[in-house]
Structure formats: structure tokens, C-alpha cells
Amino acid sequence: MTVSAPFSALRILKEGLTGNTGWTRHWRDPAPKAAYDAIVIGGGGHGLATAYYLAKNHGLTNVAVLEKGHLGSGNIGRNTTIVRANYFLPGNSEFYSHSLKLWEGMEADLNYNVMHSQRGLINLFHSDGQRDAFVRRGNAMINQGDDAILLDRDGVRAILPYLDFDNTRFPIFGGLLHPRGGTARHDAVAWGYARGADRRGVDLIQNCEVTGIDIADGRVTGVQTTRGAIAAPKVAIVVAGRSSQVAAMAGLRLPIESHVLQAFVTEGLKPVINHVISFGMGHFYISQSDKGGLVFGGDIDFYPSYASRGNLPMIEHVMEAGMTLMPMIGRARVLRSWGGIMDMSPDGSPIIDKSPIDGLFLNCGWNYGGFKAVPASGYCLAHLMATGQPHPVAAGFRLDRFATGRGIIDEEGTGSQHNLH
Asked: Helices (H) and strands (E) in the chain — how many of each?
């Protein structure tokens, strides 16, 4: 099977002039081998990034990514594409700062256009107390080496004149601008990492569902799949909202609840929103895609579920929040909606750690933050799998913090209730 050669402006021009007949597959479609040095369960953004960095950074190429459907069929293709590094607490701030730096070099690194657009993200605030909280957050971001600009009411109005600044309940006092924040094309991120991993020798095996995890004397030895048994001394579970189910195959009970998060996109409209806007009081966020559709979302559905679809009350809630923030949105027609299964952790921060079973690794608990974490998540899990030691920027994402109470990273200060994060 012929796999695509590197992209270049000259090659794109040549294909455009010759009917685009010379393009080939982006990655191979191999049959699973009997054994690998490492297996990554989950062919989404995090799993593909892990395989890519195992090969690129650590020279581990005898690796398989096992995906029960097609690559990128989970949350990597079911999100609102936001990329940011505006975290406050130690443990999160350095991790997402590292992730943003990887985003900024991703297209050159992967030789793939992921349509990363640093259009800027604005978090609105609606009271003096909320303004003070964002001042602290902005200072923390700057101290971390990232960017933050505090905007007053007039500063926000100059950038976003179409918002309802005089809303009776939530008048807009100002906003915190994160200029390096923005969006990226979610599918392209999965495709880019898949292509990069394949070119380094990683086997990407689709339609291969893991049905069991083999363990002997407290150590993982491989997995059972719908395409046969596959041996490996290292196995990583990177399956987002399905983390609890897959971990249960190894006899583990994770501190994770799975909830549905809905997102929506409208018909294509003329360019009007040139930033990502976050309306925290209504838990509503919105941006405009390159095709012109308004892409927006809100809260999770608040009850545990494995159904990748939502319910009407939350749809109504999100639409109400949008109308509160910008009444003009009421004239837009919604084309489609979708739901992603969020793996919600007790403190709202992720887990990248070894499991109690030797050779079995965990990557889960991403809550709302999974997409923007893709590059650093894969980078840090690959480091842990290859070296046995946590990467410094992910050292706080320990599994045992929920058992000991030490090292909790409660970014939103909402306590240990999964659905409030």
C-alpha cells in the first residue's frame, strides 16, 4: 500500500494542475501482529498523540493503536475545537502552557494543516468580584509565561460590539483576553497525528475492539480483541468517557463519572465573531468556524450517561444562554448537534499515571478540557510509558490524590462532585 509523501506547496500546486489524481492514503491499514512493545487503547486525539510521541521522542515504533471504530470517531471529532492555556492553579497551568507551545509548533512538526487559528479568547466577567478573580488568573497566566490582557467594559465593546452589555442580570463589566488562545480543526488534529505515527512505523488498527486485558502475577501481558489476542508488556488506556468500562476489564474501579456534553453548529453566516467568547455566568461559549457556522456549547447534561447524544432541556438551556449574551443569535438556524462522553474526575483535573497493575497506564479525567490538552497529553503519557517517570508538567496528575486527598487540583473550586466541574 502506498502512503502519502510529505506535503509541500509545490506538490499541492502539481496536484491541483493534474486533477488531484496523485494523492495516496495517509496511513496504512495493517493487520494486528501477535505482539508489540506497547499498545495504546483508543484511536482518538490523545491516543494517536501518545503513539506519535512514543515513536518520535523515544524511538518506540513497535507500537499499536487499537480503535474499536474508525480513527477519530470519539470526542476528538465531537467538541467545540477550543485551544487555550488560561489556567490558574499549579499543576494545571504549567501543563496547559506546555500544550499550547506544542500547538504552536504542531503543523510544522506534523507536516499537516490542522487549521490552528490563534484568534484570541475572551472570558467575560459580570461583577467586581469576578473581575478581581480574573485579575488573579491573568497574573498567574503571565507568571507562567503565557499572555493575558484585562479589558474593561469599553475594551470589550470595541472588540465585541454585538453583545448585550446592559443585560439586567449579567451586565458585562469587562473581560480577560488570552490572545494566543483560539481554535483548531478537530478532525485534522487526529488525522495529522495518525499520519505522523504511521510514518514512524506505528500500526493503526481500526475496527479492533478490546474485550479484555490480560494480567499475570500483577503485570499486564496484553489484551484480548475482536481480532484476536495481542501481547504487550505495556498497555495504555486512553478512551475518554469509556475509561471506567475499559479499566474494569483489568479489575480497576476509577474515580470517574461519564456525562454527555452537547455542542451545536448553525448554518454558515458572514464573518462576525473573530474570537472565542466564554460567558461563564451562563456557561456558554461560542466561536465561528472557517465555514461560517457558529459553533457553541454549554453545560454537561448533569446525569451519568454513555449515550453520545443529549436531551432537550439542556438544548433549551444553551439556547437561552446564547440569547442572553447576544440576542442576534436567535435569527440563526441550528443545523446539527452532537454529544461527547466526558470522563469527569472528582476535582475537574485529569489523570496521567501508572495504574496499580504493573505495565498498565491511565490517561483519563479530561472533563471539558480534552481537546486543548491533546498534544501535551500524548507527550506526557509517552514520556511516562517510555521512562517510567512522570513528565514534570504532568507530575500532579496522580491517581492516588483522590484516595489521599493530597495534591487535589480543584481549578473551579466546586468540591468533589464530578458533574460540577
From this structure: 10, 19
Residue with cell 480534552: 370
Helical residues (DSSP H) of 111-152, grouped into ranges: 128-144
In sequence order, what E strands does 226-350 have? 228-231, 235-237, 257-268, 276-279, 284-288, 293-304, 334-344
Within 8 A by CB and 6+ apart from 250, the residues are: 213, 215, 220, 355, 357, 360
Q: What is the DSSP string of 166-184?
A: T-SSS---EEEEETT-EE-
Residue 248: other Cβ atoms inside 10 A? 12
Distance CA(65)–CA(275), nearest Å, equals: 35
- pLDDT category at 401 given cuts 50, 70, 90 is very high
CATH number of 31-79+186-255+347-420: 3.50.50.60
pTM: 0.95
Query: Where is average pLDDT lowest: 3-17, 121-135, 176-190, 249-263?
Result: 3-17
Q: Is the pLDDT of residue 284 over 90?
A: yes
For residue 339, how many C-alpha atoms fall within 13 Å in the half-sphere facing its CB? 22
HSE-up (13 A, CA, CB side) for residue 400: 5
To the nearest 10°, report the CA torsion of 46, 52, 53, 55.
Answer: 150
pLDDT at 77 over 60: yes
- pLDDT class of 4 with cuts at 50, 70, 90: low
Q: Where are the domains of the chain?
A: 31-79+186-255+347-420, 118-182+257-344
Q: Are strands 149-152 and 182-183 parallel, antiparallel or unpaired?
A: unpaired
Neighbouring CB atoms inside 10 A of 204's CB total 26
What residue has cell string 472557517?
290
Same-fold call for 31-79+186-255+347-420 versus 118-182+257-344: no
Q: Of the candidates 296, 300, 260, 261, which has an alpha carbon nearest to the alpha carbon of residue 278?
A: 296
Q: How many CB atoms lie within 10 A of CB 250?
A: 19
Q: How far is CA 86 from the centre of its chain?
A: 15
Query: Which three cell numbers, joined as nine digits, stand for 134?
Result: 480574573
Q: Quick count: other Cβ atoms within 10 Å of Cβ 9?
A: 7
- Give the CATH H-level superfamily of domain 118-182+257-344: D-Amino Acid Oxidase, subunit A, domain 2 (3.30.9.10)
pLDDT for the residue 3: 62
Compute the radius of gyration of the chain from its Cα atoms.
22
| Residue corresponding to grid cell 488534529 | 189
